[in-house]
Amino acid sequence: MQLKQKQLHPQAGITLVEMMVVVAIIAVMAFFAGPEMLQFGPKARLKSATQTLKSNLELARLEAVKRNTLVTARFTTSGCDTFPPVTPSSYSITWDDNGTPQNIPLMGSSSSSTSSGNTYTFPDGTALCGSDRDIIFTSRGYLKSTTIADEVLSLKSLEKDPGDPWYQITVSLGGAISIDRKEYK
Question: Which residues contact 39 (CB under 8 A, 6 or more apart)?
Fold first, then answer.
C-alpha cells in the first residue's frame, strides 16, 4: 500500500483582506497621532530655544569668571500678547574690556532662529516675555543685581493653547541657572 503524498504549493503574496486590515490599523494610528505630531514643531522650537538660552547664560557666567570682569546679557523682549510679535525677542552677551563692550560669540543657532554670532533672535512663534533687561555676572560668577532677588525670564510659545508648555528660567544671586517647565491653563 502506497501513501500518496500531497505536494503543497506555498502561497506567495498577501490577500486583499490582510492588506485592508493593515491599512485600517495605520489609519487608526494616524488618527490618534496626527494632532500630537502637528504640535511637535512649535514645542520643539520652544524647548530648543530655552536650552540654548540656558547654555548661553552659563557661557556668560563662565566668561565672567575666566576674564575676571563683568559680563552682560542684554535682552530685548517682545510683547507676548500679539502673534507675530511686533519686535522679535533677542539677546546678546558682552564683556567689559576697560570700558569698551566686546561681544562674546553665542552658541546654538537653529534653522528657525537667527544667530549672527553676536545676537541671538528667538525662533518664530516663541517670545521672551516681560520687559527689556540686563543680566550681569560678576567676576566671581555671581549675579549682580540692583534688587536682592533672582532674575526670572519667561520664554513662551505665542500659541498659548491649554496644556502647552512654557518655560521659566531663573538666575539665582549665586549664579545658578535653572529651568522650570510650566503649562498654560
Answer: 161, 164
Residue pLDDT, tens place only, 56-101: 999 999 999 999 999 999 998 876 766 555 677 889 999 888 878 8
Among 71, 110, 112, residue whose Cα is nearest residue 92: 71
* Burial class of residue 62 (count of CB atoms within 10 Å of its CB; 0-12, 13-18, 19+): middle
Superfamily holding 16-183: minor pseudopilin epsh domain (3.55.40.10)
Residue labelled with grid coordinates 494632532: 35
Q: Are 118 and 106 in contact (CB under 8 A)?
A: yes
Strand 71-76 versus strand 114-115 pairing type: unpaired
Residue 12, classified by CB atoms within 10 Å of its CB into exposed (0-12), middle (13-18) or buried (19+), is exposed
Q: Which residues contact 82 (CB under 8 A, 6 or more apart)?
A: 158
Where along the chain do its domains lie? 16-183
